[in-house]
Amino acid sequence: MKFSIDRTKFINQTNNVQRAISSKTTIPILTGMKLDLAENGLTITGSNSDISITSFISKEDADNDLTIESLGSIVLPAKFFNEIIKKLPGDNFNLEVLDNNQTLITSGVSEFTINGLDANNYPHLPEVATENQLIFPTDLFKEVVNQTVIAVSNQESRPVLTGVNFIINADGLTSVATDSHRLAQRKIDITSDEEYNLIIPGKSLTELVRTISDSVKEISMSISENQVLFNFDNVMFYSRLLDGRYPETDRLIPDDSSTTLTFDSSNLLSSVERASLLSHESRNNVIKLVIKAADNKATLFGNSPEVGTVEEALDFKTLEGEDLDISFNPDYLKDALRSFGGNTEVEISFTSALHPFTIRPMENKDTFVQLITPVRTF
Amino acid sequence: MKFSIDRTKFINQTNNVQRAISSKTTIPILTGMKLDLAENGLTITGSNSDISITSFISKEDADNDLTIESLGSIVLPAKFFNEIIKKLPGDNFNLEVLDNNQTLITSGVSEFTINGLDANNYPHLPEVATENQLIFPTDLFKEVVNQTVIAVSNQESRPVLTGVNFIINADGLTSVATDSHRLAQRKIDITSDEEYNLIIPGKSLTELVRTISDSVKEISMSISENQVLFNFDNVMFYSRLLDGRYPETDRLIPDDSSTTLTFDSSNLLSSVERASLLSHESRNNVIKLVIKAADNKATLFGNSPEVGTVEEALDFKTLEGEDLDISFNPDYLKDALRSFGGNTEVEISFTSALHPFTIRPMENKDTFVQLITPVRTF
């Protein structure tokens, strides 16, 4: 295996693949990055037990300046290999595999000889058939993920709750996540010949949206029994799926309400951020919302026995319904409000002090809902 | 105590004072920030066992929008107080001390009540006479500190070596620091009526140069028996001095040399950074420089048994003298080269493989020197 390549183009692709590589893995070869050089170009692969990413650098594209002298494969220690390539002096670099997987990297005045590993020992990638691809506009896909992944559980006691449930049928795609204290659900229109119900690990989705650069317009998704494959540009992103049955969540979302307020989301977010400064110092991290309908007043209260108290007169747009005292974790409300992005008008609906309340964007009440369970404080 | 003030101007000053406040202090009141309101303005104070910083906000300056209703003092929990002020909604805020040191802070829709502490229990600031002030241009002072503080020891076994030695006499100011493996010495012209020999803790100097904003043109320095006071703009920065006798360092710097090279500092820095990528993985973190005068070649070698080897053909400007094999810690050379800033031409002089070598800027060979002790590898 021997080639030379444009250093910057190479770094752009290793940055994608690097996301799948963990130095903490128990399988030593997975701390490495695999390079496979074929007639048509170079494929770079990184993998851990959850996700695998490949990125392809085409010989056809003259910008890549890929000159091939001989084909082959090698696995190189990812951390050092990346640091070395980033610090090399030249615009290009040469890479040649010598005897015993020793790999010579040269660029300008620098010459590195790195101990590689036999690529035959690297695990095979999952096989995912790509006949029934679903196509998403990138912006919409990122929105769906970012709006729901905030509600996944980070506790392994119920593994399915660490994932986001994608339900694809004649109604489109419903994406839902819950950690049993809060829930996020977003629906979008999408056409699919097949019906699917899958649970994708939240961490995989978080890495996926970080990997997709802003220049990518479309992303395609292919599903097998225990793997999902996302494809965009020259990148293939594989994630395992979570086994098990996701809970029915539709019945958790209340239909009616006794008190409803509308807010500018960023205004309300600022007030909750201030109130949470003190609640973070108290043992139970709870703030209280007191609504006095007759006075047309809504006030947030936070306190920490050590530091002091805070009172925020909320700047709502409308208030309708009954009086209410309700307590909740301010961090859930902050996450929910941030998921609407910018200055969105939102509606918050309560049924009682002990029932979950919902936050919805005024413009898309039917397709997007954040739900938060209150905390009983008496 | 009751006043209102411009929030942004207030935050600018608390950001300075905050540098002196540690949440790890064993004296609880020092986790607080002291506010003293007098007729002419507000003084904010923060302190730890090493440094104290005060910042003054004048009533005279209309930009501060300081309206005083009643005078007084209070100590508030620094971390929360700062977070609260930063997140308040209004351009201004009001602060009023109520009974039992309870402090009411209001701004727009927000109302915080914070538990304060009695300002009478706050330690007194050191007393430093300011008759014999030394005046430095800020840029030059920062240069002197940044070029020498890199060589202070971070081990408490010899406390004086954790400081920078300032020697002020008829020759000007000599600033020197050494951790016994390397040494940095910078001399500048300065006029002083008195002679001084003091040791300022390296950490104090690092915080000091961070506190001095780019808009400050001059800084004055006043010295007492065990304290030094730096004054700039409306800020007073006190540091304790280190007790003890600083070692004589002049005799450590060699006068002659057997091999001399000149480099562009940033070129050499890049080569050393690459060579250190692998040495960092080996047990002793050493790289080897091999000079072959007859071949007009100088080569850096680094290696890690696990990862591999690196060879850098150095791109020097001139090479004179005898052949040499010398090994050293690359991190010391990186720190030294960075202290010259940008693309400076530097001269490196060696006497033997076991004696310290020096790095000096070509344009100021007599006033600035970095010295590094090699490592014996055989």
TrEMBL record, chains A, B:
Keyword vocabulary terms for this entry: Cytoplasm, DNA replication, DNA-binding, DNA-directed DNA polymerase, Nucleotidyltransferase, Transferase
Residue ranges occupied by any DNA polymerase III beta sliding clamp C-terminal domain in the UniProt entry: 251-376
BP term (GO), one: DNA strand elongation involved in DNA replication
Domain of life where this protein originates: Bacteria
The protein's role, per its UniProt record: Confers DNA tethering and processivity to DNA polymerases and other proteins. Acts as a clamp, forming a ring around DNA (a reaction catalyzed by the clamp-loading complex) which diffuses in an ATP-independent manner freely and bidirectionally along dsDNA. Initially characterized for its ability to contact the catalytic subunit of DNA polymerase III (Pol III), a complex, multichain enzyme responsible for most of the replicative synthesis in bacteria; Pol III exhibits 3'-5' exonuclease proofreading activity.
UniProt subcellular location: Cytoplasm
SMART domains: POL3Bc
Ranges for domain DNA polymerase III beta sliding clamp central: 137-248
Similarity comment: family membership: Belongs to the beta sliding clamp family.
InterPro entries for this protein: DNA_clamp_sf, DNA_polIII_beta, DNA_polIII_beta_C, DNA_polIII_beta_cen, DNA_polIII_beta_N
Subunit structure: Forms a ring-shaped head-to-tail homodimer around DNA.
GO MF annotations, alphabetized: 3'-5' exonuclease activity; DNA binding; DNA-directed DNA polymerase activity
Coarse class of the protein's main subcellular location: cytoplasm
Name used for this protein in its record: Beta sliding clamp
Species this protein is from: Companilactobacillus ginsenosidimutans
PANTHER family, per the entry: BETA SLIDING CLAMP (PTHR30478:SF0), DNA POLYMERASE III SUBUNIT BETA (PTHR30478)
Domain DNA polymerase III beta sliding clamp N-terminal: 1-126
Any single GO CC term annotated in Swiss-Prot or TrEMBL for this entry: DNA polymerase III complex
